[in-house]
Amino acid sequence: MDRLHFFTPVRIARGQGHPVEEVDSVSEAMVFLRKWPTGRRGPVYQCALNCCAAAMSGKMSAEEARKAFVGFARITRLLDDDMALPLGGTSMDNVHALRR
């Protein structure tokens, strides 16, 4: 496995009628982030971009960059609901309460 591949892909859901995308490497995350609209690039976006750039230059692990990208996807509400669920049998009511 390439050092820039994620152990688990990040699943991106753009909404009804769009297929779920899987981002499985730092380079794919960078491509996704570079296509993000300029007017919607805030601090969480910048953090994810910086972490991916650091991973590509060997200053950070791919999994650390993945965590930053997951945070970006969660904040922008693009993270697929299946990925947002905590492990260990937490009920959906608790998950939705955390999202509010």
Q: Profile the largest sheet.
A: 2 strands, antiparallel
Distance between the termini: 38 Å
The low-pLDDT segments are 87-100
- How many DSSP H or I helices? 5
Which structural class do you get from the secondary structure elements? alpha+beta
Order of helices and strands: EEHHHHH
| Net shape | globular
Query: Whole-number radius of gyration?
Result: 14 Å
In what order do the strands lie side by side in the largest sheet?
1-2
- Percent helix among the residues? 40-55%
Q: Provide the residue-averaged pLDDT.
A: 86
Tell me the β content. Answer: 5-15%
Total E-strand runs: 2
Could you characterize the architecture of this molecule?
- The chain has a two-stranded antiparallel ribbon.
- Mean pLDDT is 86; it is low at 87-100.
- Helix 1 (26-34) runs antiparallel to helix 2 (43-56).
- The protein is globular.
- Strand 1 (5-12) and strand 2 form a beta hairpin.
- The N and C termini lie far apart (38 Å).
- The longest helix is centred in the middle third of the chain and has 14 residues, at 43-56.
- It has helices at residues 26-34, 43-56, 62-75, 81-84, 92-99; strands at 5-12, 21-25.
- By secondary structure, the chain is an alpha+beta fold.
Question: What are the key terms here?
Answer:
100 residues, alpha+beta, 5 helices, DUF982, DUF982 domain-containing protein
How would you briefly describe this protein structure?
InterPro entries: DUF982 (IPR010385). This protein is an alpha+beta fold. The chain has helices at residues 26-34, 43-56, 62-75, 81-84, 92-99, and strands at residues 5-12, 21-25.
